[in-house]
Amino acid sequence: MLEICEPGHWGSESLRPVLVDATAGLGLRAAGVMIRLGGATAIVVSHGLEPDAIDAYIRHWHRMDPCLAALGGPVEARAVRGTSLVGGGLLQRSSFHHGWLVPNGLGPSAFADISYGGGAAAWLFAYRAEGERTFSRSDLLTLKALAGALSLSFQSRALSGGALAAAAILRNAPVPLLLLRTDATLVWANAAGTALTQVDGPLRRAGSHVLPQGVGAEAFSRVLEATATSGRPRALRLDGRAGPTAAKLHPLRTGSGRATAVVLVAPRENTPLPDTDTLSSVLGLTRVQAEVATLLCRGTETQDMATRLGISPHTLNGYLGRIYDRLGVTNRVQAVVRLLGVSAALALLSDDPGSAERAEPSLESV
Q1: Contact call for residues 151 and 115 (beta carbons, < 8 A)
Q2: 10 phi-psi bin (left φ>0, alpha ψ -120 to 50, beta other)
Q3: 285: left (phi over 0), alpha (psi -120 to 50) or beta
């Protein structure tokens, strides 16, 4: 599962009545709003789809959806029938048709582009019940008008362009990263983070929640809540079939300011970290600022940084403040996420990214 939005973000619950009215007025089986950023797909809000159907689509079937593949990107505020994209015969022969549409009683489909920025594509999707009539031209005009109205709401609540850009950079980063709410609901995960939830991984999926293997939902929620409340990172040991995995929880307030979330970063061996020269040249940092930024990425505590660099904590705080300004962030966690994003982007473009020294966190079992 790879999501790029927080459940309930963009005032999605306030949009639900709109979808309910559209579903009834157009004789739909289901309708909803989908957002894509690169290979990431999220259903922000829907009506008429069971939670299991949504979870299955996000986890697997969006990759097999021929209509979604044919959309590719914005279609200039048009509304289109699914069969106009891939053809009715091809659609009915697809595994997507037999594996997801038919089991959920879904038939003719239509999509309308929702104007959206930040490199993401947003779609209003609509399905009629299996065997019912296809969408008429009048239906498509209605969907287009509805998508236009939704775009006004989205643009006032959307994630900042910087957050979307960070998500795009970190999507294929080698550093596993998951964003969890304090009830263990998965908000977002990059590919490496999603890999931790595989059969042999240290995390397991329980519906929309992510839990450490062998740990109950209530116990893990208490750990997340304690981390968020204290505002301090917490080291963890995640037990999987391949052995223990070191991880850290970091408190993080989402851009909406309404929900506290926790970032779970699970370091791996030989994770490429940005070195001093790279940070100095790429981000335009001074030599000392780049050294501070490198120590940040290695999880070095503030007092240890000052001691290692031979400077006072007051001077160090001045360096940290200038680094935050340069990165456009406000705290240590956000800075590390940005810096690891730079490292990951450079590693993807490099034939020999090499490896860097990694500080071993202390372990604390859940």
Answers
A1: yes
A2: left
A3: beta
Question: Can you point out the beta strands (E) in 207-242?
Answer: 209-212, 234-240
Question: Which residue from 107, 105, 57 is spatially nearest to 81, judged by alpha carbons?
Answer: 107
Which of 327, 35, 249, 281 has the alpha carbon at shortest distance from 154?
A: 35
Cβ neighbours of residue 54 under 8 Å, at least 6 residues apart?
43, 46
Q: What are the φ and ψ backbone dihedral angles of 215, each rounded to 5 degrees?
A: -120, 135
User: In sequence order, which residues have a C-beta less than 8 Å from that of residue 232 and are 6 or more positions away?
Assistant: 251
Strand, helix or coil for residue 264 = strand
pLDDT, one tens digit per residue, over 60-70 is 898 899 988 88
In 3-state terms, what secondary structure has residue 194?
Answer: helix
Give 209's Cβ-side CA count (13 Å radius).
14
What domains are defined for the chain?
9-158 (3.30.450.40), 176-265 (3.30.450.20), 276-349 (1.10.10.10)
Reduce the DSSP state of residue 109 to 3 states and report it.
strand
User: CA–CA separation, 112 vs 294, rounded Å?
Assistant: 45
Point out the least confidently predicted range of 241-245, 325-329, 338-342.
338-342
Residue showing tokens 């209003």: 124
Strands (E), the chain: 30-37, 40-47, 79-81, 106-114, 121-129, 177-181, 186-189, 203-206, 209-212, 234-240, 243-253, 260-265
Q: How far, in Å, CA of 223 to CA of 249, rounded?
A: 9
From 161, 44, 53, select the one nearest 102 (Cα to Cα): 53
β pairing state of 209-212 and 234-240: unpaired
* DSSP letter string, 63-105: GT-HHHHHH-S--TT-EEEHHHHH-HHHHHHSHHIIIIIGGGT
Q: SS3 of 39, please?
A: coil
What's the predicted TM-score (pTM) here? 0.44
pLDDT band at residue 59, thresholds of 50, 70 and 90?
A: confident
Q: Are 218 and 25 in contact (CB under 8 A)?
A: no
The SS3 assignment for 33 reads strand
